[in-house]
């Protein structure tokens, strides 16, 4: 991600996608995208292992019965695989939601805790850290963490309710 000698800029320049190197950590648009990509890359393997475990837990008898009934691949995915891995999807969505709302390490390391540029990647947990341990406002930090806890609880409840709806069949 180095803007002068980084592999990504060299690759994009070599493919003639960009004309000049991008300073990934000085742009208010590129910095959040970069942090998002780093987090996606960091958690991709774990998420895929969970999904693979959910898919492998589907009984072969169900798939074979669907094939005998004449179901094609897309119908198998839509009507058999996805409904049967719903608990796995709910787990991944909720843990990703909690992880996203409590993100601290990547933005903190990349910006020395200030969320630069212009606070574009200042997360609530970084703000909490700065309030408590750099500015020493412990009471305000306690209020922030309480609000964060409530917000995460509400968001998880909403995500769970949306994802755990029972399908209506005719």
From TrEMBL:
<dbReference type="InterPro" id="IPR000515">
    <property type="entry name" value="MetI-like"/>
</dbReference>
<dbReference type="GO" id="GO:0055085">
    <property type="term" value="P:transmembrane transport"/>
</dbReference>
<keyword id="KW-0813">Transport</keyword>
<keyword id="KW-1133">Transmembrane helix</keyword>
<keyword id="KW-1003">Cell membrane</keyword>
<keyword id="KW-0472">Membrane</keyword>
<dbReference type="Pfam" id="PF00528">
    <property type="entry name" value="BPD_transp_1"/>
</dbReference>
<feature type="transmembrane region" description="Helical">
    <location>
        <begin position="89"/>
        <end position="110"/>
    </location>
</feature>
<dbReference type="InterPro" id="IPR035906">
    <property type="entry name" value="MetI-like_sf"/>
</dbReference>
<feature type="transmembrane region" description="Helical">
    <location>
        <begin position="138"/>
        <end position="160"/>
    </location>
</feature>
<comment type="similarity">
    <text>Belongs to the binding-protein-dependent transport system permease family.</text>
</comment>
<feature type="domain" description="ABC transmembrane type-1">
    <location>
        <begin position="1"/>
        <end position="159"/>
    </location>
</feature>
<protein>
    <submittedName>
        <fullName>Sugar ABC transporter permease</fullName>
    </submittedName>
</protein>
<keyword id="KW-0812">Transmembrane</keyword>
<dbReference type="InterPro" id="IPR051393">
    <property type="entry name" value="ABC_transporter_permease"/>
</dbReference>
<dbReference type="GO" id="GO:0005886">
    <property type="term" value="C:plasma membrane"/>
</dbReference>
């Amino acid at each position: 991600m180095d803007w002068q000698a980084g592999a990504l800029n060299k690759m994009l320049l070599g493919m003639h996608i960009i004309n000049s190197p991008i300073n990934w950590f000085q742009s208010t648009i590129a910095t959040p995208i970069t942090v998002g990509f780093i987090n996606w890359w960091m958690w991709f393997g774990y998420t895929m292992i969970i999904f693979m475990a959910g898919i492998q837990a589907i009984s072969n008898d169900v798939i074979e019965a669907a094939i005998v009934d004449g179901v094609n691949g897309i119908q198998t995915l839509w009507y058999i695989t996805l409904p049967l891995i719903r608990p796995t999807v709910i787990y991944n969505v909720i843990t990703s939601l909690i992880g996203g709302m409590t993100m601290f390490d990547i933005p903190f390391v990349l910006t020395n805790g200030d969320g630069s540029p212009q606070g574009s990647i200042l997360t609530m947990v970084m703000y909490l850290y700065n309030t408590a341990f750099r500015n020493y406002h412990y009471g305000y930090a306690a209020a922030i963490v309480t609000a964060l806890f409530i917000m995460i609880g509400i968001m998880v409840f909403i995500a769970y309710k949306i994802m755990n709806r029972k399908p209506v069949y005719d």
